[in-house]
Amino acid sequence: MITIKNLVKTYGTGAKAMTALKGINLEIAKGEIFGIIGHSGAGKSTLIRCINMLEQPTSGEILIGKTVMTRLGKNQLQQQRRRIGMIFQHFNLLSSATVYENIAFPLRLVRTPKAEVDRKVNEMLELVGLTEHAKKHPAQLSGGQKQRVGIARALATDPDVLLCDEATSALDPQTTDSILRLLLDINRKLGLTIVLITHEMHVIQSICDKVAVIQGGVIVEEGPVIDVFLKPKQPVTRDFINRESENAEALDEAIRATNAASSRTVKVTFIGELTYQSILSQTVKETGVDFAILQGTISRIKETPYGQLVVRFEGDSADIRRTLERLTQQRLEVEELEA
Amino acid sequence: MNRELDFSQVNWAEFGKATNATLQMLGYSSLFTLILGLPIGIILFLTARSSSVGARSVYAVLAFVVNLLRSVPFIILIIALLPFTKFIVDTQIGVRGMIPPLVIGAAPFFARLVETSLREVDRGVIEAAQAMGASTRQIVFRVILPESLPGLIAGFTITIITLISYTAMSGLVGGGGLGYLAVSYGYNRYETSVMLVALVIIVIMVQIIQMVGDRLVKHFTRK
User: Fold this and answer.
1) Quick one: which of A180, A175, A185 has its CA closest to A198?
2) Is the pLDDT of residue B60 over 70?
3) b or e along A302-334 (b: 16 or more beta carbons within 10 Å of the residue's beta carbon)?
4) CATH number of the domain that B95 lies in?
């Protein structure tokens, strides 16, 4: 659906030049929710704004479907943009217009007949649950409601792609979750491709299928969320995950404090239906070792349940080895941790 | 000058005519100032932030002319424009003769106020409209003007009040109206009472216009 090839964006020229994006390559499939995570200044905002050409790339190519966005003339670009919805951190609604008029705005740009505008706006109001607020102005709404208007406005023209520029960063945790649920719902109902940027792992974990980690204008890690989340390779990725789930320092201390000659500390990862099975207890019953759980998470990534436990096994070293083999055989991932 | 105020010498019928003349000058000059100043303000706004060299040179020229006209004292502007006024309205005095200099004097002022109001519009909202595929024309008429309406009304109110003081000044050089009465009776013939009455009428006009302007601003403010 979206292909980004060798995208480079440089601001300014000469000695003052600053390269925000240094050769980005991404492939985003139709119907996917694709998350791009990075710290502020990593280039994620520039990247998403290049997709609909709000920022003019310095070099490289962006394709949406078969349309090469980077080669469009002014009028063609305006037409293409109508097929790409966008929502923003600060909502960017017309303060002088009502909720209804805000949602009608993109339809009126293309002179949609009045009856059709009315039908579509009401459909969108229902989709985002704001039917009774149609006549209010944005200043009378809460942040979450404003973002719902933003979503309704972005979807009114039936776009193929929705770009979310830090769409939940200005919202409190509960509101963030309700907006994320709405986005997931829309993605399922309409088969819409969603590209979002964020600095919160929580957002990625809740709704994304795939994730790309951006740092210093380069994609440093990319893949299905479950892989990147459970087996992060880059320090920056671990950083994002640790802040969300576990406290790395506390773990280190726990391992150090309990380390003994006759024990081994491992990280065991369960993915999918394995998460809720009694594999660990069955295995130790067979091999006769004892274990202690030093740290652990059992949660879900989008729909997939997963568990990640840091476990110290105690007992005969041959028995422990057998235990670890058994666990691996049962498709659990076992990674030995150093004290 | 130490005479007591004697309102018996005030010719009220003449005041009626003069007030009428002032209102006419004010009405026409406000209208043409709006027609001329608003587009200039929009062009200033659009060309100032453009990345194209052509647009920025339009801005440079326009901004220079606007600054030039704004730096000429109004009384000198009237005199300097006499041939132009004669050409446009075929007279140099009276209500008609004053309208061209009033408009030329006030339009650049209003254009700057328009430009400033438009700059206040949230860049994010303009960007959202761009992302929805709006053309520049649609952005101006459907986003920037509606969003800045309270600021535009406030600016226009200030402009009308400035025009009131300009019409009064024009009394010195052959313009009709309250300014002329105040100057010719009040100043030249020491009839302080006439000057006072003219002044009171002008103050009332200013108050009413400011009040109406403020009400409208409040009505259209949604923030």
Assistant:
1) A180
2) yes
3) eebebbbbbbbbebeeebbebbbebbeeeebbb
4) 1.10.3720.10
What's the DSSP call for residue A133? Answer: G
pLDDT value for B94? 80
Indicate if A265 and A219 belong to the same structural domain.
no
Are residue A142 and residue A287 in the same domain, yes or no? no
| Overall number of domains in chain A | 2
Q: Which residues of B touch A81 (CB under 8 A)?
A: 130-133
Show the domain range for A332.
245-336
Q: How confident is the model at residue A243 (pLDDT cuts 50, 70, 90)?
A: low
- Flag whether residue B140 sits within 8 Å of chain A, measured between CB atoms: no
Note the pLDDT tens digit of each residue in A191-205.
Answer: 999 999 999 888 998
At B184-198, the pLDDT tens digits run 877 777 778 888 888
- Do the bridges between strand A59-64 and strand A161-165 make them parallel or antiparallel, or are there none, so unpaired? unpaired
Please name which of A292, A283, A336, A281 lies closest in space to residue A314, comparing C-alpha atoms: A292
Q: What is the pLDDT of residue B1?
A: 47
The whole-angstrom separation of Cα A242 and Cα A236 is 10
For residue A325, give both structure tokens.
């083999």
- CB–CB of A52/A63 below 8 Å? no
pLDDT at residue A244 tops 60: no
Residue A290: pLDDT over 60: yes
For B131, which of A79, A81, A138 is closest by C-beta distance?
A81
Same domain, A51 and A100: yes
- Whether B1 is in a domain gets the answer no
Domain-located, residue B174: yes
Count up the domains in chain B and report the number. 1
Answer with the residue of higher pLDDT: B3 or A304.
Answer: A304
Residue B2 covered by a domain? no
First CA to last CA across chain B, in angstroms?
53
Domain match, A177 and A88 both: yes
Final residue before a domain boundary, out of A243, A278, A308: A243
CATH number at residue A306: 3.30.70.260
Full domain range(s) for residue B69: 8-220
Residues in A whose CB is inside 8 Å of some CB of B read 52, 54, 77-82, 84, 86, 88, 90, 92-97, 105-106, 108-110, 137-139, 153, 157, 163
Residues in chain B: 223
A100 and A60 within one domain: yes
Residue with tokens 């394995």, as numbered in its chain: A274
**Residue in chain A lying closest to B147 (CA):** A96
Place of tokens 């309409």: A190
Choose the most confident range, by mean pLDDT, from A36-50, A250-264, B138-152.
B138-152
| Interatomic CA distance for residues A103 and B132, integer angstroms | 11
Report the pLDDT value the prediction gives residue B10, as an integer from 0 to 100.
75
Please indicate, yes or no, if residue B161 is contained in any of the structural domains.
Answer: yes
